[in-house]
Amino acid sequence: MTKTAESVWGNCLTFIEDNISSQAYKTWFEPIKAVKLNDNALSIQVPSKFFYEWLEEHYVKLLKVSLTRELGTKAKLVYIIKMENTYGNKQPFTEKIPSANRSQMRDQEVSVPLKHKSPELKNPFVIPGIRNVKIESQLNPNYSFENFLEGDSNRLARSAGYAVANKPGGTSFNPLLIFGGVGLGKTHLGHAIGVEIKEKYPEKTVLYISAEKFTQQYIESVKKNNRNDFIHFYQIIDVLIVDDIQLLSGKAGTQDVFFHIFNHLHQNGKQVILTSDKAPVDMMDIEQRLLSRFKWGLSAELNHPDYDTRIAIIKNKLYRDGVEMPEDIIEFLANNIKTNIRELEGAIISLIAHSSFNRKEITIDLAKKIVDNYVKHTKREVSIDYIQKVVSEYFQMDVDTLQSKTRKRHIVQARQLAMFFAKKFTKASLASIGSQIGQRDHATVLHACKTVDNLSSTDKQFRKYVDDLNKKLTL
Ligand code: ADP
Ligand code: MG
Questions:
Q1: CATH code of the domain occupying 5-112
Q2: Res. 177: pLDDT tops 90
Q3: pLDDT confidence of residue 381
Q4: Cβ–ligand 1 contact at 154 (below 6 Å)
Q5: What is the homologous superfamily of the domain 384-474 according to CATH?
Q6: Rounded to an integer, what distance in angstroms lies between the CA atom of residue 164 and that of residue 153?
Q7: Residue extents of the structural domains in the chain
Q8: Residue 46, ligand 1, Cβ within 6 A
């Protein structure tokens, strides 16, 4: 079989995926495209200069090993950085940079300087001395890094945010786009970056604004016929933090004005931090040229916090509020509110309030009532029936097939997965699980659970089934 760029890169990816966390793989390797294979040189396209730097800094060894496996010791890697001209009216251009393995790369003549100096933009409208006008940063000092607890779910975003705070405008994280679901800490992290910058660089003008307020201001400026003043106000900011930019969807005028402000700030080495409840690819009705700007720097996701992080967040909150709560109640809360830190905090506050108003002790019963109020709308009863339904749907079979006596491998596997999740998510006994999933006995269920455990640590495809189903069942 002849090797192609895709086939070689595909094999490298399989190797790389086995050697790093899935989060890292998703962040740094999935966006790469293999473009060309010339003898021993594989060209890959990366989304930004930052990407290239990060890969070189963190994964160069892994890349080298994987590429050598495919192409031998003479293997070369060529990066192609996709960038677009800042003015948006010229063709995108490409840069090729040799990999860090420079000794082997000497004959590679495609390297071009990375810096494209854009001419300094003199803005005729900025009144001299306007920098002396104090701009209130609108930051909430309670949202700091110190009380933004770290966990697997937020490590990338948090550390990128911290890097930005140390060197605003001076890293490749520009813009830094923080995205993730409701109540996972986007606003908190956005403020924390701003607060930290204010502390380290008091002379810098930092501004936090929600996209909603930005839109209102813009509309107001159009009405009052001072759109230019509006733009110029934003152009003198050193660090601009815009929260919930998904709200710019469908608002062409606001997007257009934001595009110009963004370009101006970016060209002048100012830092832009954005948050969104969606990944850039999922943002609807946002103009392409603006979306592509969002991808220039780093998009970092905030995921659902894991159990330990939830416990830590609860304890930290209680500590700050000077409240004590029994350990079993803390665990109960962490076990029952999983997908939204704001809900978790809400439940704690409500629990404290109830107990102090009614002079009652904080008990598990009270906690249960409150949690029901908080997660009623999102919580779905996980029953064995429901599990069978979800598993069957996932494998595109019906529940009868899943329960049937057949020994066909994919059906057996589906059945075993259903048993495994029934054990995991319900309190039912092995015997009762067996009788509900196709009249099997408890030994069969036990065997199923062991098989799933084994397969998910040895078989990657199977592992994916387990993870996918887990997600579906815990939504
Ligand atoms: P979002 O903007 O993503 O909807 P917020 O930033 O408003 O979420 O966060 C919701 C609540 O959860 C806030 O009170 C915030 O302080 C808290 N929170 C989120 N993440 C963390 C964390 N890692 N550590 C401590 N508190 C957090
Ligand atoms: Mg928010």
A1: 3.30.300.180
A2: yes
A3: 58
A4: yes
A5: DnaA protein, C-terminal DNA-binding domain (1.10.1750.10)
A6: 19
A7: 5-112, 137-302, 307-376, 384-474
A8: no
